[in-house]
């Protein structure tokens, strides 16, 4: 037998062997993959992983096997390993009946979100929209991802597409309403949130924002009822209590507001969270309004210890820091209505040498009408009244306040006015008063007057 003939036989034999291997694989591997899929369906993840890994070790480019391996890892609670397999599949796969693209992209998008890769999740979701443009859930998921990236324009567009695709998608209506609310499109927001609640009355987020819309329109009774419905939701409970407190505070029910803010603090899971700090801040505002400055300071200090730059807490503590050492200013700031009137009358009589003719309470302190005290000197002269304002709000007095005051004086035919404050005046306010018949008395001079007349002893 010639060597050429032997070579031909060997080549033919090799070809037949390769063909046989290919035929075996063509029938055997699909059968193995079907078996792995059945194991996954039956919850036998360990066996499925073992068999899938065996196929992958023989052929690392087998996308179907890697996909099933990822699914088995996912079922076995090994999501990170599943993501690694899916990423490999995503780079090389040709999708088929055994490797359905839509199902694959839904799963990998969820895994990207789980491991904080929102950009990758968004890419997969946008591909899903192209694959299944009739699925409202894909538009909704994309909108949420755009919203997380602060791309409100794209988020709004995709939320609208979601509700257009499925008008009964309650969550999409709710999220669209919330985004419209944040964008100050109140009328549209109210419409979407109302529709969301009609479709799903148990949507607590929509209920919460409906309460906020009602609060903004000063419909406090219905706002309180809306927030009450949300209190069973652990994620929204503290926020709802704060909102209820704000409703009462704005409606001048300060005592009820204190109860709600105190409940909000007790519901806190994190003393340093913004919600807890806001609850304390509003609670301090209530105490400040009631002139219980010591309790307000307790709340401000709690906030300051956790976040020094929170709102104007540092300024508040600075303004009131002398309270514990200066009894005169403390009494002026914390006295109840009758005692405060007594103090103001004494300052007017002894400190300004004027006689009080009338006194009334104002939201920032009190207002007095007074005339000159020396009866002999002015016996034959008509006494000119003066309007005196005692101000104990912690904020500096602005020029706008003085402009309003001067208009009020004109209406009352009063020429001269005096403004006395425990805080101070802005630069523009001081400049405004320079050329007008207004005398401005700030904290320092007020302290001297209070000390000199010994009003507390006389009381």
> CATH topology of the domain at 330-458, which one?
Trna Endonuclease, Chain: A, domain 1
pLDDT under 50 segments (min length 5)?
Answer: 15-27
Radius of gyration: 38 Å
Helical residue percent band: 55-70%
Annotate the secondary structure layout.
Elements: H1 3-41, H2 45-58, H3 63-75, H4 79-92, H5 101-114, H6 118-131, H7 136-148, H8 152-165, H9 170-182, H10 186-199, H11 204-216, H12 220-230, H13 237-250, H14 254-266, H15 274-289, H16 293-306, H17 313-319, H18 327-334, H19 337-351, E1 354-362, E2 365-372, E3 386-391, H20 399-411, E4 416-421, H21 427-434, E5 438-441, H22 443-453, H23 455-458
Parallel strand pairs: 3-4, 4-5
Antiparallel strand pairs: 1-2, 2-3
Helix pairs in contact: 1-2, 1-3, 2-3, 3-4, 4-5, 5-6, 6-7, 7-8, 8-9, 9-10, 9-11, 10-11, 11-12, 12-13, 13-14, 13-15, 14-15, 15-16, 16-17, 19-22, 20-21
Question: What are the salient characteristics of this protein?
Answer:
7% strand, 23 helices, Trna Endonuclease, Chain: A, domain 1, alpha/beta, 67% helix, five-stranded mixed β-sheet, 459 residues
Summarize this entry quickly.
The protein has helices at 3-41, 45-58, 63-75, 79-92, 101-114, 118-131, 136-148, 152-165, 170-182, 186-199, 204-216, 220-230, 237-250, 254-266, 274-289, 293-306, 313-319, 327-334, 337-351, 399-411, 427-434, 443-453, 455-458, and strands spanning 354-362, 365-372, 386-391, 416-421, 438-441. It is of the alpha/beta class and 459 residues long.
